[in-house]
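Appendix B, Record 12. Input sequence as logged:
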Amino acid sequence: MTSSFARIVLVILCCVSLAACGERSVSVNSDSGFETQDISKGSGLLVDVGSVVTTHYTVKLPDGTAVIDTRATGRSHTFKVGGGSVVIGMDKLVRGMRSGGVREGRIPPSLHYGSAGYAGKIPPNTMLTFRVEVLDVKSG
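Logged structural output:
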C-alpha cells in the first residue's frame, strides 16, 4: 500500500469509529491537506460566511509547541467569517461550528502563512494545528 492510500484508509476507519461513538466527527480535504476534528459540537447559531465570531484559539507547531494561545493572553479574538481578517485555514475551520463548540484542524501552509512564515514564531512552509473554541456567534 502506498502511504497516501494507507492514510486514507486510516482516516476512513477513524471516521467510522468516531461516528459509531457519536461524539466527534472528522473531515478531511485530501486535496489540500486540511483536516478537522470536532471535539465538542456546541449549540446556538451556526457559523457561516458573514457571521461575526468570538473565539479562543491555539496554534501549535508539528512538535506541539504552542506559538499562539489567546487563552494564555486572556484576549479572545473576534472576526467576521469570510471577511479576510484571519488566515484562510482559520476562516474555514470555524465554518459550521456553533457557540461552545471546539474543533481542531491541521492546516497546511497554503492556508496560513505559507512560505513567509510568521513573526519569527512560525517557520515557512510548516503544517500547523489550530484548536479553536467558538465563544459567541452573531449573524452578519
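DSSP finds three helices and seven strands in the chain.
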